Amino acid sequence: MSVRAGWRKSLGASLEVELGYRADGTGSATLTGQIDETSDLSPLGDVKGSLVLDLAAVSYVNSTGVRAWVRLLRKLRSNGTAVSIRRCSICMVMQMSFVEDAKARVASFYAPYSCARCGADGEPELVDCTTHRADLAAGRFPTRQCPRCAVVMSPDEDPESYLLFLSE
Ligand SMILES: [Zn+2]
Question: In CATH, what number is assigned to the domain containing residue 67?
Answer without folding.
Answer: 3.30.750.24
